[in-house]
Fold this sequence. Notes:
Strand content: 15-25%
Distance between the termini: 52 Å
Number of helices: 11
Amino acid sequence: MTQTRAATLITVLTALLAVLLTPAPASAASLQEVTGFGSNPGALRMFRYVPDGLPAGRPVVVALHGCTQNAAGYGTGSGWTRLADRWGFSVVLPQQQPANNASLCFNWFAAGDTGRGQGEAASVAQMMERQVGDVSGGPVYVTGLSAGGGFTAVMMAAYPEKFAAGGVVAGLPYGCAQAAGSPYVCMYVGATQTPDQWGDRVRAARPGYAGPWPTLVAFQGTADYTVKPVNMSDLVEQWTDVHGGDQTADVSDTVAGYPHRTYRDGAGHPVVETYSLTGMGHGQPVDPGSGAEQCGTAGAYLLDVDLCAAYRMGTAWGLNG
Length: 321
């Protein structure tokens, strides 16, 4: 055998050995239902998505679907499960049951479901605690669409010590239904409250708690006639007040062509961010595709507007780090 042929054979054998020794890709994770996660006073179902081989200490995202949706559809459609695989975190996906709400809305407006230690709020908190225990999870974040967005504000207010941040998509401020006298007035008109009054509603949900409070990222379509844009303005007033900031944006720019605002607290830390989706109706912003900033799948209440809300939240929270 000539020296050249021997060198070629060695090269081929080395490449073949490298292929044989390369671990096969892990099978894709799947959504799993979890039972027995607590007393479950709100009678919800718990689903979760845990990427294969997820190390301990990774973040947990609680993602709450909107009305008429379910855990599986929202987890995939919003892009959260895909980002979990990409960035390495787990997702808890609560699911409403028809016996609780015929439209499968989380009951963001019902006093018995929105207080600490009560109803659906307690059930979601128990799911989060079970997940953190099972995966030795790190920081926890909560987000949701529409009624799930309203319930995100519930969890941020009732369990502020449990969540590092929240993401409200086409949702409502905490205590809005009570302030407006009706959930429908809240959704279609808004409630007349000062920033301090909005903040007081949050502070009353966890008496004696002095912080730290979850930060907020909010998304709202300007052509949303189901949850009017005034609700995002009220969210800004509520959570800037809770953080001791003012209601004047410290940064005003555009992201993917849409107005984006950042509000800072007295120490200069960003505590509220907003995305105003020009011309978008009621739904979750998604941007289907394989690009670095793309995620989500278009569908009912999952609107392709060339911006993926889950990606923007995840980067704001440092999940991509």
